[in-house]
Amino acid sequence: MSRAIRVASFAIFVALLLQPAALRADITIPYLSGRVVDDAHILSDAARDRITALSKAHEAKTTNQVVVLTVPTVGDASVEEYAVKVFERWKLGQKGKDNGVLVVVAPQDRKMRIEVGYGLEDTLPDGAAGDIIRKWMTPAFKAGDYDKGIEDGVAAIVAKLEGMDGPTDRTPAAAPASSSNGGFTTVPMPMALFIGAFIFGALGLFTVVGVMTPGVGWLLYFFLIPFWSIFPMMIIGPRPTLFLVGTYLLAFPIAKFRLRSQEWYKKAARELKTSGTTTIGGFTMTSGGSSSGSSWSSSSGSSFSGGGGSSGGGGASGSW
Q1: Residue 120 to residue 101: CA distance in whole angstroms
Q2: What angle do CA 244, 248, 253 make, to 5 degrees?
Q3: Other C-beta atoms lying within 10 Å of the C-beta of residue 189
């Protein structure tokens, strides 16, 4: 018997060691001290009082329980997992009715969740909960106004549970333009598709020509840098453009150095050096004997040349 106990104890010990760390981390759940548990300290006293009064009045009218929890972070768990754990621990809603709603906000993670009890899933379905988050909570959070975002979110939940589309005495917050994008806004669709196809098509074409052209192709490399830095910004915004420019700066020379070992590339280099012209992929490359006199033209007669134009950097994009 003692041996069986030792074996069982060892098995339990191993199971605890193999238990996922995220599940152990989830257990840190604040004590249910009221209808609003502001563990992240992001709400003002006045907002907590208003939310509490709203939740209390709704429960008196319907027996539904709407509770708000703010935590700095949900740790390694997902916000969905964390909300379920809290809901289970706090046992929100009436027994047999399962009519509780939990609002979780984790400001450090920039995550939120509306967890709905089984008994209210028909009244407050997933789509409606998502609409409340997008319309009433997210814009206010983007503006840094947690008081308004959480209070409006709870008011919208209460309105939905009471058969209304939304709170009639409130208006959603307007999210500010993201400062991380420098005030830029992207070109609207479908114009963005048309302009983007033209810009990226042209830049891609001359980039390929520059990579495939021996010697003077390096002129195109440096010439195209400002174009890759400015024009894509109108379509995809500053941050993606910065990544794109970095990719161009690295990928162009890597591709060019790899092509140096190809026989067709060596042949083209010899022809440019001896006769001043060569043909690559249907394009006729011509060198005037010096870098200042170099030009590129297609066999169909079209040509490309740079002429000292400038751009004010106009355009914009937004993200949270």
Answers
A1: 8
A2: 165
A3: 9
By DSSP bridging, strand 111-116 and strand 100-106 are antiparallel
The two three-digit tokens of residue 21, written as one number: 């760390």
Query: Residue 319's Cα: distance from chain center in Å?
Result: 7
Q: Are 268 and 276 in contact (CB under 8 A)?
A: no
Do 141 and 149 contact (CB within 8 A), yes or no?
yes
Q: Are 225 and 248 in contact (CB under 8 A)?
A: yes
DSSP β-ladder status, 65-70 and 100-106: parallel
Contact present, 214 and 272 (Cβ < 8 Å): yes
The rounded radius of gyration (Å) of the Cα atoms in the chain is 31
Helices assigned H by DSSP within the chain? 2-18, 21-25, 45-62, 79-90, 126-132, 138-142, 146-161, 191-212, 217-230, 233-236, 238-259, 263-274
Cβ pair 317, 238 in contact under 8 A: yes
Centre a 10 Å sphere on the Cβ of residue 101 and count the other Cβ atoms it contains.
27
pTM equals 0.51
Distances (CA, A) of 302 to 195, 205, 223, 227: 21, 13, 19, 20
CB 105 within 8 A of CB 40: yes
Q: In this predicted model, what pLDDT tens digit does every residue of 191-240 receive, in sequence order? A: 667 777 777 788 888 787 777 777 667 777 888 888 888 877 767 777 78
The H-or-E segment that residue 115 falls in is: strand 111-116
35-85 tens-digit pLDDT: 999 999 999 999 999 999 999 999 999 999 999 999 999 988 889 999 999
